[in-house]
Write a structure and sequence with these properties.
With 284 residues, the chain is an alpha+beta fold. 39% of the residues lie in helices and 19% in strands.
Length: 284
């Protein structure tokens, strides 16, 4: 049974955003077919020193080290020494624990936990995309599911230390890296606007908005931020149905080569903005 659109469903709310593309356009299959670059207003302009440093980096590892070092200083993400802790208040002592890295690690462990709620809230704030699921479907508002989501996304345990600004910089760093990678391919290789990814799912019927799964080609509505896999084999571990998706590069938040070391739980996991996607569905 296809998903029924209704103006009283939160997924159809028109929300403002900071990327200059109307939210309904950003969430549409038309945008996915013909994407345009996205930038969070004011982020690069507020941190010109970081992006000037990045332009002078010689390789991805050097750029990564610059990014991590800059955020550590700008947001106090280094763990204080015992001597430093003695001169801090309790809230300041905990400040360094609210970091983009811990948030992503929390998402990797449970996308429906507090970290997942904070990340979905950031996407809602910056891109205007309203989440459709957090522990339970977020349908009519208000509801117990919506109240639980709102409480978790405001939790000071992870929604602290300007975490939205940290994620703004992470998104801009990701987009800067993807542009640099395109430039390094050379003039002989045409630039790509998409990344072919896969997603395993068992909740297919409630995600379906056009077409039939049995016909393979259909349209699904994904949550406002979702994880994809780099291979069909990895995606099949997460559901009986596997969606093959062409994800616009401008919607990618994190990809494996962006951050060396363990950041997300899955080594081949790509984090991207959701919305309506045309997919090729296969039953594994």
């Amino acid at each position: 049974m296809a998903y029924e659109d209704s103006p009283d469903q939160p997924q159809r709310w028109y929300a403002t955003n900071l990327v200059g593309v109307p939210t309904r356009v950003l969430a549409s299959t038309d945008f996915n077919r013909h994407p345009v670059p996205l930038a969070i207003a004011g982020t690069c302009q507020t941190h010109p020193g970081l992006f000037a440093l990045l332009e002078g980096s010689q390789n991805p590892n050097e750029a990564h080290d610059m990014f991590v070092h800059y955020l550590n200083i700008a947001f106090g993400l280094r763990k204080p020494t015992a001597h430093e802790l003695s001169g801090m208040g309790k809230s300041e002592q905990r400040r360094w624990k609210s970091s983009w890295r811990k948030l992503l690690q929390g998402w990797g462990m449970d996308s429906n936990g507090v970290a997942g709620a904070v990340l979905k809230g950031w996407v809602e704030s910056r891109f205007g995309l309203v989440p459709g699921f957090h522990k339970a479907p977020l349908t009519r508002f208000p509801s117990p599911a919506w109240i639980a989501y709102l409480q978790e996304k405001a939790s000071s345990r992870l929604n602290n230390n300007n975490i939205y600004q940290q994620l703004d910089l992470l998104f801009e760093f990701c987009q800067w890296t993807l542009r640099r990678m395109q430039l390094q391919k050379g003039a002989d290789t045409p630039p790509s606007q998409h990344l072919r990814l896969w997603r395993g799912s068992n909740r297919c019927e409630e995600q379906l908005i056009a077409g039939r799964l049995q016909d393979k080609h259909c349209t699904v509505r994904l949550n406002n931020v979702v994880s994809f896999s780099l291979s069909r084999e990895d995606a099949s571990c997460f559901g009986d149905w596997v969606f093959e998706v062409q994800v616009p590069l401008c919607k990618v938040l994190v990809f494996p080569d962006l951050m060396p070391g363990q950041v997300l739980q899955g080594e081949q996991e790509v984090l991207a903005l959701g919305g309506d996607y045309e997919v090729v569905a296969r039953y594994d």
